[in-house]
Specification:
With 118 residues, this protein is mainly beta. Helices cover 8% and strands 40% of the residues. The chain is built from 2 helices and 8 strands; from the N terminus they run ββββββββαα. The strands form 3 sheets. The chain has a 4-stranded antiparallel beta sheet with strand order 3-4-5-6, with no helix packed on it. Strands 1-2 form a two-stranded antiparallel ribbon. A hairpin with a 3-residue loop joins β3 and β4. The longest helix is centred in the C-terminal third of the chain and has 6 residues.
Length: 118
């Protein structure tokens, strides 16, 4: 998108006309590429994937009838594992709430995560 603005100022007396033209070009920003939310998109990690959360930018999926779960974050339309920040006293993966929030995880996903230290 290109915007051009022209301003004309006339002073009297004496008569002086000043014209200023400024052109601003705004480069459009491409929308982020969303990743596939279908169960098939997670078959690389699971034989029977179940998707518990997915908005195209973040996902949480797991193997059917197990506690094997992975959190994902999309990058250029592809799923990348979002690594846990620690483990609970029972050895289950957990996430630091402040870090996940700062990384932009949506509230719907955050509600599903096991948080460290809490």
């Amino acid at each position: 998108m290109q915007v051009t603005a022209t301003e004309t100022v006339t002073e009297t007396p004496p008569t002086t006309t000043v014209t200023t033209t400024e052109t601003v070009t705004d480069t459009p920003v491409a929308a982020p590429v969303r990743a596939d939310c279908s169960a098939d998109a997670f078959r690389i990690d699971f034989t029977e994937p179940v998707v518990m959360f997915c908005d195209g930018a973040w996902a949480r999926a797991g193997q059917a009838q197990t506690d094997h779960l992975i959190v994902y974050r999309a990058a250029a339309g592809q799923w990348r594992t979002y690594e846990p920040h620690g483990t609970t006293y029972t050895g289950y993966p957990c996430f630091d709430e402040a870090t996940v929030t700062a990384d932009g995880a949506p509230a719907g996903l955050l509600q599903q995560l096991t948080l460290c230290g809490g």
